[in-house]
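U., I forgot to send this yesterday:
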Amino acid sequence: MKDYPNYNVESLSKRNLSKISEVVLATIVSNFRSTVLEGDLHKNVITAITYLLIFLVPLAFVLKNTLFIEAEVVFVEGPKVFIFRVLTAIALPFIAYGLIKEGWQIHRNKFAIGIIIYFGWIAITTLQSRDISLSFWGEFLGQDSYSMLANLHYMVLLLGVIVTFDTKEKLVNLFKMVAISGTIASIPVILQNYSGFPIDLIPNGVGRPPGTFGNPVFAGAFLSLTTMCTAYLALRHEKTYSMLLIPQIVSLLMIQSRAGLLSLVIFFGVTMIFSIKTAPIKKILIYVGTFLIIVVGTFFTGGIDRFLQSHTEITGRTTYWTNSARLVIESPVFGFGPDMFRYFYLQVSPASIQGVPEEPDHAHNWLIHNAVEMGIPGAITSGAALIGPVFFINPFLGAIFLGHAGEQMFGVGRISDLMIFYILIGVAYNAYSRNTCSDF
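Result:
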């Protein structure tokens, strides 16, 4: 196993671990019991599948060298893709039944129009792709999950959230499961940091604990989202869940994902600003304290070395961005098609130190990446998906989208965090469109 920095995690005392375990187990039992015993059958099935996705996808993996394919992290991403697509396919008929039962009465508003335009443009650029077959099917066990087929499954998940989680109580329960998923996913990261995880899930050359995600960047994207959801839940609805922030923030500090930590700084910064006039002083102090813990912890738990290296690595990413801009100029309207970034980037890729072209599979910027694959209109619709919900929901929920947008300007979207992202879009839609969710 790798040698990692020695962190001081005294906050994870036996007492705190006991409380965290109690919260996790109680939530799992109560939420799954309610899905089986209460409400309509089709909604219970969709709810149960959604909960299973939230738990299984981030944690799924097989042993290294079990699957042999070009993508190095296929042993963690392949099972995630398989589970996600199978479970969303099972949920599809129940979601269709729910839509029919409601008479297709999904609220027709600006938010709904935005969702239709977003997925509609993905379909159009697939038809205009330089390789329609690859853009539709994608690399099933490859590294990216931006194909038309993948997006159809994300759309199914989004519709399932809209149809099923139609009350404030259900949305709170959904956030509880996201918080618990992030807590469980943080455990392998912490154990890997101390060489205590029994299974080797670290690809060659990776020097930071990646958890069950195969890459620290992917882990940071997922855990930053779940941490923000946990903080929202604790500060707005259930303060008991503040305990679950401890392992997630600790794991992010161990991963040293600068983009992930940036998202938390944005989130807590925005929530502090909007809390000044309305929140009691005790809650404001919690915001300020958490904000300072993240900032100070980043610099004094090994993260300072990563930030001192930022100039070099950001320079490398600006190379991706400038070369990607050349591709956008070549095909500004429809791009090259979903999941085609890697293939066409090779045309403009400079030689690496080894004398061969660099072959990144992502631009490390959500907007630039989508501009290459779906043209400038695709970058606009993708930007609207990241930021647009902010204009329809309360500023505290909007802070999650702002934080994630900051992370995606430097990070990489993969199946685990994309799944949570589309769930959040469904949550934001219901919070805006349904009176029963308006005070979420």
